[in-house]
Design a protein that fits this description.
- Chain A: One of its GO terms (cellular component) is plasma membrane.
- Chain A: It is found in: Cell membrane.
- Chain A: InterPro entries: MetI-like (IPR000515), MetI-like_sf (IPR035906).
- Chain A: It holds the Pfam family BPD_transp_1.
- The complex is a heterotrimer of chains A (281), B (421) and C (290).
- By secondary structure, chain A is mostly helical.
- Chain A has two domains: 56 residues; 219 residues, MetI-like fold.
- Chain B has 421 residues and is an alpha/beta fold.
- The radius of gyration of chain B is 23 Å and the shape is globular.
- In chain B, 51% of the residues are buried.
- Chain C has one domain: MetI-like (MetI-like fold, Orthogonal Bundle), CATH 1.10.3720.
- In chain C, helix 9 packs antiparallel against helix 11, helix 11 packs antiparallel against helix 14 and helix 13 packs antiparallel against helix 14.
- Classes of the chains: A mainly alpha (281), B alpha/beta (421), C mainly alpha (290).
- Chains in contact: A-B, A-C, B-C.
- At the B-C interface, helix 1, helix 3, helix 4 and helix 16 of B face helix 2 and helix 13 of C.
Chain lengths: 281, 421, 290
């Protein structure tokens, strides 16, 4: 008996490690090729695509940075991501809390279903009307995009948070109410804390969306390069420079770099945050 | 307070929802910096190639020295054609933009009153008459300043031609002969970017099937058919034959990869648009390359694809001071010395009178375009939806090894399916 | 008095910003989008007429639209299958890993950090530059060119790139689901002599059903509305083999002067997603442990 378990375990462990190893190669392999080739000249890359660079040649990086606006794009993307996350935090948990505690009332149930309906709407339906609305409101700029992301974040946010809050016991809130806390105080000092795991999950998912989104920035921020985000810069590079592919690799790396730095610094929290919310959700 | 403004915005929107039509009066709010009399206008420039962008940048810098109170803010975005359409659709038209005046799309914009009529502007007379004649809208007026011509041609590697003592072919038979010479020496004769088959299709169709575009336009109107057309059959066979002399990985190669490969001497010839020239020069400044028209059976039947490049237009919806500023800029651009500088920097052949083009290897092609048979891009005659759909049809012919007869049938079907009813 | 009023309307006020923003930027846009689908607006003309269902009728008769639906369906099925199977295998593998688990998890989540555009551009280069080398080295004719060059392989290649990124998040969600299984149950199973497979089938799997539903719904929607990968990698080609609906809508709206038609296409997509999600959620409710 004992022996058989151990044998199974061993076979599984070998298989498992093999799977994981192959997976890691498939993920890191392309990254590796991007990094080494970004450090080569076109000529050198032509001689050996897989070879390590002969020397650390940062001239591609220097040229890319000298083309100006890279830092501007990093700043814009950061500003939009952070601003949008603030919007998410301001409007998502409040409405979710109100709905979760009042589902029996018609208005709140309506709001819930109204917002959930958005889960089914593909972006293509609203693509142009949205652009039109933003034009009419003179909001074709980063601030407008932040407002938009706030609105568009609601479907997922409400979906996840309402379920989560409904699963939470009422006792603490009731006790607080007896102690004379107002609804706002309860929300602010109790609920926000209790829903933190799910909120963190939501923030991470939304932040990745805002940071990496391509289509909305293309439609909303096309008035001036001053507004551009990294994905726009990246896509544009395709027409401008892809005849020089080591340069293109440099641009891929530079486009990824900020988020990878953030990830490297906080991966423990990011992964724990996502897992935490998912367990309880 | 804030909430109230939001609410009133909603009220307005809900009201307009009932009345269905909305957003008639929106104006681009570009000039909010009220400092003095400085007018800042957006210049939506469609050509993303680095050489062209930097040429415009230089010229704009010179302009602002002369007109310090006008700021031209050049804006080049990814996917510019679609973004510009979206901006027209949302009534957010850039005050100054480049567009393609010979295309049906542009004429549609003119018809709807979106674009300023430039017919009475004196600077229009600075444009080479031959090209100006390609651009009038349906009402005969000129709505843009054509600034350069473009073409599809064969670029050849001068050194490779000289080393193998190959002459510039002037007939299709010579072209194949030359390709065979290169092939026998282990040099890729022709590097084709069949992932971006579109312009290859246009160039070969116009070269090998004179009058073909007009035939297709007839089909779009419900008259005639391509099936059984011997000229088209000839075109289809030649197009197939070209791929036999092409790089093995042609179907995976994009136009930019082709430019890179050609710049690095990996092929003797490519079929490229004039827009590729700047990139090739950037990728390898030392490469000597020239151009000749893709030849048909005889020199007399050879037709080059050449048209007016992106031209500059002004939005009819712009504010008066924005129009004024844009006009000043166009007037400046139309000066021969400015056009010359722009042409030198961008590598694009200018069509402003009084400019010259300094590239002896390209001159023969430009002479041919000036004196020989020339046909414009397809979307001047056919709706662009049909043209782009034909790209896929052509790809299918080449990749799936369909018979030329089948290909012609498919062309008919594609045109009929996408014709405007 | 005022504070009492405020207290009573707190919940209502809590809903207000969300409802306003959502109405303005979402519901209203959906409404307008649907409205356009009943017109003949080409996107540029200054006026348009209402044409009833004629756009929908045209689409019904349009072989390109049908072909695009089929491609989208294939895309979605391959994506969902690939993502579900791989993320489940990875989650099981990662969850049972003792050493280096944090490291492995970080690597596996890395693709989720990168934008679809960047990922597609990288893979495009790899497909062109690496695959032909493999083809030459092993003399496999199918690999002489980038797989994106073949109508047969292009769709699979695009889906593979999409999966490369899309596996990350479901894997984490599955790991979370696995961690919610009480360990006593495993102990009990082990004492009863259940095999590894049976332990998975009867203990782990029921606990995973809710997370499977979540992952499925997300993957199906991602598959059906996909745009970024195919657009950047192939633009819909070759020979329309990767022309998913997302691309067709985008091209019709902004390139082909068929704006109203594009909206009708999008509305059909909306209906398809709604039906599928509804069925999914219904099925998901049937079994599983909450």
């Amino acid at each position: 008996m004992n022996v058989s378990i151990r044998q199974e375990g061993l076979g599984w462990r070998i298989l498992r490690n093999l799977i994981l190893l192959i997976g890691i190669i498939i993920i890191l392999g392309p990254m590796y090729l991007v990094v080494i080739n970004s450090l080569k000249s076109l000529e050198e890359a032509g001689q050996g695509f897989f070879n390590l660079p002969r020397a650390l040649d940062f001239s591609n990086y220097a040229e890319l940075l000298s083309k100006g606006n890279y830092w501007r794009y990093v700043w814009n993307t950061t500003f939009i991501t952070i601003g949008s996350i603030v919007m998410v935090l301001l409007i998502n948990p409040t409405v979710a809390y109100a709905i979760a505690r009042n589902r029996h009332k018609k208005y709140y149930n309506f709001v819930y279903l109204y917002i959930l309906l958005g889960l089914f709407v593909p972006f293509q339906v609203i693509m142009l009307p949205l652009t039109k609305i933003m034009t009419n409101l003179s909001l074709l700029n980063p601030v407008g995009l932040i407002l938009l992301y706030g609105a568009l974040s609601l479907t997922r946010g409400v979906f996840l948070l309402v379920n989560y809050i409904e699963g939470m016991p009422m006792e603490i809130e009731e006790a607080a109410r007896i102690d004379g806390c107002s609804t706002f105080q309860i929300y602010y000092s109790i609920i926000l804390r209790l829903i933190m795991p799910m909120l963190v999950t939501l923030i991470i998912m939304d932040a990745l969306w805002f940071w990496n989104d391509f289509m909305l920035p293309l439609l909303i921020l096309n008035k001036s390069k001053e507004f551009w985000t990294l994905p726009l810069f990246q896509y544009n590079f395709k027409t401008e420079y892809s005849f020089n592919y080591t340069m293109a690799f440099t641009s891929y790396l530079m486009a990824m770099l900020p988020i990878i730095v953030v990830y490297a610094a906080g991966q423990k929290y990011i992964i724990a945050g996502l897992t935490e919310g998912a367990i309880k959700g | 307070m804030k909430r109230r403004t939001k609410l009133s915005i909603i009220a307005v929107l809900l009201a307009s929802l009932v009345m269905t039509a909305c957003g008639k009066e929106s104006t681009p709010s570009n000039s909010d910096n009220g400092k003095g009399d400085v007018v800042k206008i957006e210049f939506f420039q469609q050509q993303g190639e680095e050489a062209i962008q930097s040429a415009y940048r230089e010229v704009i810098a010179d302009f602002s020295k002369e007109y310090p109170n006008i700021v031209i803010d050049m804006n080049t975005v990814p996917d510019p054609v679609k973004v510009l359409t979206a901006r027209f659709a949302t009534n957010d038209i850039p005050p100054l933009f480049t567009d393609f005046p010979t295309q049906l799309q542009f004429k549609e914009k003119v018809k709807n009153g979106f674009i300023e009529n430039l017919s009475d502007q004196p600077f229009i007379k600075n444009v080479n008459q031959k090209y100006l004649d390609m651009t009038p809208a349906d009402d005969g007026g000129y709505y843009s300043l054509p600034y350069a011509r473009n073409y599809m041609a064969v670029y050849y590697n001068v050194d490779l031609f000289e080393q193998n003592s190959v002459e510039i072919p002037t007939t299709y038979a010579e072209f194949i002969e030359a390709s065979k010479v290169f092939q026998s020496k282990g040099i890729t004769p022709l590097y084709l970017p069949l992932k971006d088959v579109g312009h290859i299709f246009q160039a070969t169709n116009i070269a090998f099937a004179p009058g073909g575009v007009e035939e297709m336009a007839k089909v779009a109107k419900g008259e005639g058919q391509i099936e059984g057309n011997t000229v088209f059959l000839e075109f289809a066979k030649k197009l197939r034959e070209l791929t036999e002399y092409a790089n093995k990985d042609a179907f995976g190669v994009s136009a930019q990869m082709m430019q890179e490969a050609f710049a690095n001497g990996q092929a003797a010839m490519i079929i490229s648009g004039s827009y590729g020239r700047g990139n090739i020069k950037l990728a390898n400044p030392n490469l000597k390359f020239g151009a000749f028209p893709l030849p048909n059976d005889t020199a007399d039947t050879t037709t080059a694809l050449s048209g007016v490049n992106a031209s500059l237009s002004i939005s009819a919806k712009a504010k008066p001071e924005e129009k004024e500023a844009a006009l000043t800029f166009l007037k400046y651009l139309a000066r021969p010395e400015v056009a010359q500088k722009w042409s030198d920097l961008s590598g694009e052949p200018s069509i402003i009178n009084g400019t010259t083009y300094e590239d002896k290897y390209l001159q023969p092609l430009l002479d041919f375009i000036d004196n020989g048979n020339v046909h414009d891009w397809m979307s001047s005659t056919l709706p662009s939806a049909i043209v782009t759909e034909l790209y896929g049809t052509t790809q299918g012919y080449l990749i799936n090894n369909e018979t030329p007869e089948q290909y012609l049938k498919n062309i008919d079907e594609t045109i009929k399916l996408n014709a405007v009813k | 008095m005022a504070s009492k009023f405020l207290e009573r309307s707190t919940y209502f006020l809590f809903t207000l910003p969300a409802v306003i923003l959502y109405t303005l930027f979402f519901a209203y846009a959906v409404f307008v989008g649907i409205q356009y689908s009943f017109t003949d607006w080409n996107g540029i003309s200054s006026g348009y007429n209402y044409v009833g269902f004629s756009n929908y009728v045209d689409l019904w008769n349009n072989p390109n639209f049908k072909q695009s639906l089929i491609v989208t369906g294939q895309y979605a099925i391959m994506l969902v299958a690939g993502v579900m199977i791989l993320s489940l295998i990875l989650a099981l593998s990662l969850n049972s890993l003792k050493k280096l688990q944090t490291f492995a998890k970080s690597v596996y989540f890395l693709p989720a950090m990168i934008s679809a555009v960047t990922i597609s551009l990288i893979w495009d280069q790899l497909f062109v530059r690496v695959v032909p080398l493999i083809g030459e080295a092993f003399d496999i004719a199918a690999f002489y060119q980038s797989p994106l060059a073949h109508p047969k392989y292009a769709l699979i290649a695009v889906v593979i790139v999409n999966i490369w990124q899309a596996v990350a998040l479901p894997t984490l969600i599955f790991i979370a689901g696995l961690q919610s299984v009480p360990s006593e149950l495993y102990e009990a199973g082990r004492i009863d002599g259940a095999s590894t497979f049976n332990r998975f089938r009867y203990i782990t799997f029921p606990f995973l059903i809710p997370t499977i539903t979540v992952n499925m719904v997300l993957a199906i929607k991602a598959g059906i509305t996909s745009f970024d990968y195919a657009y950047t990698l192939t633009g819909g080609g070759p020979v329309k083999s990767t022309n998913v609906i997302g691309i067709m809508i985008y091209n019709d709206a902004f390139q082909n002067l068929r704006f109203a038609m594009a909206n009708a296409e999008a509305v059909i997509l909306f209906v398809i997603i709604a039906v599928l999600s509804f069925v999914q959620i219904k099925l998901g409710r049937k079994g599983g442990v909450h």
